Amino acid sequence: MIGRNRSLDGLRGxxxxxxxxxxxxxTYMATFRGANPNVVPLAGWSEPxxxxxxxxxxxxxxxxxxxxxxxxxIAKIANRRDFAYPQFVRNRLVxxxxxxxxxMAVCVLTGPFLHIPFPSWGDLAxxxxxxxxxxxxxxxxxxxxxxxxxxxxxxxxxxxLPLLLASGRALRVPALAxxxxxxxxxxxxxxxxxxxxxxxxxxxxxxxxxLLSQASVRGIAATxxxxxxxxxxxxxxxxxxxxYLTTSQFVWLFxxxxxxxxxxxxxxEGWLARSLSWSPLVALGRISYSFYLLHSVALAAVFxxxxxxxxxxxxxxxxxxxxxVLGFAGAAALGWASFVLAERFYFxxxxx
Length: 352
Known about the structure:
Radius of gyration: 20 Å
Oligomer: single chain
Order of helices and strands: HHHHHHHHHHHHHHHHH
Number of domains: 1
Strand content: under 5%
Number of strands: 0
Low-confidence stretches: none
Mean pLDDT: 92
Shape: globular
Structural class: mainly alpha
Largest sheet: none
């Protein structure tokens, strides 16, 4: 559990691939298919090609997989006997901010070439604190870098979980009970003031798994066959895409599925864990943070050059696949460069 787990890295790779599909398919449909898939439901698309693109667009749960993984790993760290909060906060800041600042600079400098106005200094300042992740505040995300809304959840969770666990220990409340209660409070109490934070459920679900013993995790993984876990993954995501679930229903169903996927990947046994250990997925998972931050820049370039790069006689399907692969390659190149410049030093420092 302390060493690098290839299946967990592969799960990160799946998560960032799903996020890429959301933005690529959504932008394509809004630009070339005549309607915004955020507004028009599945039933509003008649062509099979459009329905397939809509299905891929509704892969928003990639970010939720990231949340579950973060909850799991941070709980592992925060529950260690030698845990030191100041050092932990320093490490989190060093882990998050270099790649984030590099990405923000790239996004701001790229904007003028795509006729995007320079953001206000106020928006820049609030984005540095990830407050664009709180819709009630009305903070505008920096164009191409608006995926950083999720970093608000991550950072708030990083800073609060260790303190919550310490408070629970002082009150002699079991760590798992503290985590479950804190998750419900952070997800729903702010709603009384009109602030939506339900996605904290995913982070605290992952944290609950992180507090379990490895024997318990393996026991859960052994209870559910791989095929059942895949089926359970498909049911809520499919129902949500088809419009049969509310967001709250999906959050709780997918949190349960996320726990099962996490246990499977952590246990590292079975064909599902072996599939997640596939080398290309693992490599993508290793650079997933930088890829996540920069993939919108690559996609913006692809769509800006679409008619120069596309080959209309070959049809929509060919061009969507071809330019999607091109956009993915560009995002991977940017992600790798950012990883080398702004992330790799952290892992070397941590290992040392």
